[in-house]
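Dear Dr. H.,

I hope your travels went smoothly. While you were away I took the liberty of generating a structure for the chain from your last submission, since the lab meeting agenda had it listed for discussion. I wanted you to have the full record in hand beforehand rather than looking at slides cold. The sequence, exactly as received, is reproduced here:
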Amino acid sequence: MRLLVYNIAYGTGSPGSKWQLIAGAASYLRTSDRYFNAIVHLVRHYSPDAAGFLETDNGSMRTGGKSQVAELAKLLQSPLNGRFYTKYAPGSYLSKLPYCRHQTNALFIRNGAAQREEADFMPCGAKRLILKSVYNNINIMLVHLALTAAVRKKQLEYLANQIQPGEKYIICGDFNTFSGNKELTRFLRKTRLRTANKSHQNTYPARNPAKELDYILYSPELQLKDFRVIKFPGSDHLPLFAEFEE
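The corresponding predicted structure, in token form, is as follows:
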């Protein structure tokens, strides 16, 4: 199974300096197709069986009403089935605001081969969405954790309690571990999950990576064949690619 995980930052690109970040702030209000088109080419090149995308736009004014979620679903031939979830808490003010209400994450299984798909929400934090899918009897979860360490700790406790004995898991996404991967020590010990990024390559910011924020964690029953942090400045994060034995 080939897995791609990528925080695409709504297709707003990858600033190379603080000045470029400030100058490019307007792209969060209205962005061109330039970076998103490059991301589409990347997905085609790696041809994943499963793909998790963080910070996707489902058709706000930022993208001129075009749904990045729908475009990625079409690319991977994965039916949307009319479902859409904001990444914020259900009923929260963020889930109703312009722009924010179109901000989500997306988890796709190529050719609609998922055995089961569902969404869950963590009990705390602004970003709460957990996307879940089962593919070849592997439970895949896509998450985007909180910006504050105290809330991340509670979210990780919730995720650890999702793990069922005797089942295979991959938990992936943007964990926002600004204090380093030591934040995951207790979580990994409790769940027995392993990180695919054995050498702890940094993933953020893309043009000069200084922190490891993005992860693919997997059950020891799975056999990892390949792992890469892809040097691709299509976003402020670098994409992750992993291949597991079927």
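Two observations you may find useful: The chain is about 20% helix and 25% strand. Residues 34-46 form the longest helix (13 residues).

With kind regards,
E. W.
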